[in-house]
Amino acid sequence: MGALKPIRRLLIANRGEIAVRIARACREMEIESVAVYSDADADALHVRVADRAVRIGPAPAAESYLSVEAILSAARQTRADAVHPGYGFLSERAPLALGCEEAGLAFVGPPATVIERLGSKIESRRLMEAAGVPIVPGLTPADQTDNGVLSAAQSLGYPVLIKASAGGGGKGMRAAHDEIQARELIGAARREAAAAFGDGTLYLERLLDRPRHIEIQILADEHGHVVHLFERECSLQRRHQKVIEESPSSILTDAVRARMGEAAVTAARAAGYVNAGTLEFLLEGTDQEARFYFLEMNTRLQVEHPVTELVTGVDLVHAQLAVAAGERLAWTQSDFSQRGHAVECRIYAEDPSTGFLPQAGRVLLYREPRFPGVRVDSGITEGDVVGINYDPLLAKLVAYAPTRRQALARAAAALREFPILGLRTNIPFLLRLLEHPAVLAGEVHTAFIDVSLPALIPPPTIPAAVVAAAAATDGHGASEEHGATEKQSATEKHGRTLTRADPWSTLGRWGR
Amino acid sequence: MVHARPVGTVTVADRSLVLRHGEREFRVTLYEDGRVGVDGETFHVRRRGDGEVRVKGDPGLHAWVARAGDARWVFAQGSTFELSAAPPSRARVSRAGYSGSLTAPMPATVRRVEVRVGQLVARGDTLIVLEAMKMELPVKAEGAGRVEAIRCREGELVEPGEPLVELSDASTRSEPVGGGQEP
Lengths: 512, 183
Prior knowledge:
The complex is a heterodimer of chains A (512) and B (183).
Chain A: E1 9-12, H1 16-29, E2 32-38, H2 45-49, E3 52-57, H3 68-77, E4 82-84, H4 94-103, E5 106-107, H5 112-119, H6 121-130, E6 138-139, H7 146-156, E7 160-164, E8 174-176, H8 179-197, E9 202-206, E10 212-220, E11 226-238, E12 241-247, H9 254-271, E13 275-284, E14 291-298, H10 305-312, H11 316-324, E15 341-348, E16 350-351, E17 357-358, E18 361-362, E19 365-366, E20 374-378, E21 385-386, E22 393-401, H12 404-415, E23 420-421, H13 427-434, H14 437-440, H15 448-456, H16 464-471, H17 477-499
Parallel strand pairs in A: 1-2, 1-4, 2-3, 4-5
Antiparallel strand pairs in A: 6-9, 7-8, 7-9, 10-11, 10-13, 11-12, 12-15, 13-14, 15-22, 16-17, 18-21, 19-23, 20-22
Chain B: E1 2-7, E2 10-21, E3 24-30, E4 35-38, E5 41-47, E6 52-55, E7 61-68, E8 71-76, E9 79-84, E10 100-103, E11 108-113, E12 120-121, E13 126-132, E14 135-140, E15 145-150, E16 157-158, E17 163-168
């Protein structure tokens, strides 16, 4: 039973859109926010919106955002009383949570022991199995040599998924359909795992037949209350990186939804979980035939949390901070319902027509769309420089509407009015995806993007009218007209200033 | 090219320029009255100060534009277009022979150099492994050839267009080719 420990100053151990989103929640809750930044981010939006900012190191993440010591020392230096890790970086690393516990800081997440337990694929699977939650067949080979991993894959049966034992989010994850492929992929998977998580241990899992990725959001407080906030469907992934997420899922029956929710709550209880977390499941089959398997638990806020916020009306960051302050959850399970439909599109700095190569450059023009029911969580503004040091996620566009069909149409309309110039983004790809017949029909699975890729890549053609538009930046003709308007409005402004009734000039005598 | 002609008491000019998009080149004429000609087709273009552009027509086009140096950027109908006002670059890599230089497609760190000078490589062989944003990006040979030179070192940060490896066609005598491979 924790006592109340109000948060007055929160250090946000992250960058980009999520750091901005958390800083804004702080503003609403009258909590002072402290941003941290590397040399690459000294002028970044997340630094500008926070109340204070501390430099934590050079551009490479390993020496800044991934340094527990740098984060803790920034917290000490600014006398913060709590740390929010966001997602990615140190959010699922037990040492940060432990360091916070030892320094008397509230960590906005579960206890270090819980992170450690759920972060290990072996441990978490054992835990879920014991709690009666179904799991995907898989193992971490005891013998981690190439041959050891290969013989483990053989015993599991192909196709198998090779992934980092330490990580989540698809980094270092690869599918092998036979031994020849597996032999080729092990080395790169191990190196990527080591580079991204500092641990090259590999984990193998049986690949299911066109499964859907469905996850359940849970909230737990320190007083033993656990609730779930229904599902998010994240089946639209490219190489295991989520691209479009929505809630509710178009496939779940109420009965399956209820069973998944119960399983998630049971699992969270069994783990002694506290704060916001997500149980990821793979779902095979449809309707009554649907079977779900526990995949992993993410012990942090998810990138796609806004879709849950829109359909349930719960602000998850507010809830996280309340739980970290020792408060009780303000709800019981029966308080929640799903209302309407929300869809999130992740806008990445990557070029769909060159194999999704990450892009870098200065943002020459950036305009967020304004639509009813559209939310944009962004980490950039016009004039910012997007570099290559970190994840290429620029912003998230989330559309909310009464029905799924309307939400998808709203997202597409809003994306067409979301110009980002100066670097290429995946917006053209997102549009093709949103308007694909299979996506409109809700008939998708986790490999859908990879197998449908050719239809999702924009053609390299350019209409002549677009060339004419491009020439507008050179044109004197077009700008002449604009110049005239400008001159005219200047005169107007000037004129207004002269004729406007100035309260001081029209003041009468002071009365006595 | 500038053609000046007197109109009334002031001199105005129609300007022409070439805009390139990928391999395609467009002859563009900017008329003094605000019209824009593209390869003979004429458009009425109205530009606002905030980068918004409307091209009249049926249907019209609503776009946003920006420029930086030679680059011209357009966002229209949900697509991003990057054009260039630069004069055509030096000769491109001949696609028939696989000689020429392989360049970095993006800013990245050279993780590994997997070949040596003089080595014969086959199509699809990995020459260099780049790393950016925690992902490995192999640079592969487009065809069989011989490694003539290696222009980068492991651990080095490379920029887009920077040559990484020079390859020559192993089967025929190759002529030196400038320019870079399309990213």
